Write the structure tokens for this entry.
Amino acid sequence: MRYSDTHKEETRKKVVKAAARAVRAKGPEGVSVAEVMAEAGLTHGGFYAHFPNKKALVVSALEEAFGQSARRFARMTDGQAPAEALATFVDLYVTPEHRANPEGGCPVAGLSSELPRQGLPVREAYERGVRSLVARIANWLPADTAERESLAASIVAEMAGTVALSRAISDDDEAAQLLAAARGRIKTRMGIVQ
């Protein structure tokens, strides 16, 4: 059977999307190549046609996870003024829905504590994603460039930390209260009228 010229690239994309969900749900160490391949509808044996090793898969998965998040939030904030875009971003990020769905959420909220134990290529992919997220938020802030980067990094840390902490709380109502309070504090700190 002859495959199309794009078959290998399409197959690789399916594997990377499945891996992005798995990495966000289970962390880099919890990802099984066999499970990712099965999720993509492929056999384990086909893995090496696309990646030299699991580390390369995790790097691609992180890049895809950050890319998915960026595209999703870009669609949701497209055409909004900077303050409105920031408010929308906070309102969509610091939520019970994000808390409940780590496999589809931001890698920062789900993976920060696991990355220090990863090899350099994985950490570098993660750092590129974080820098891109910080830069996107910085573009919405009205401060000078040096302050904007620092403030944006602080916002990312507060949002991701709040979502991560809420995931550790077993009481859904208590977690929802934590998330709501954080959303309000972040927006107040940014001067966003609620």
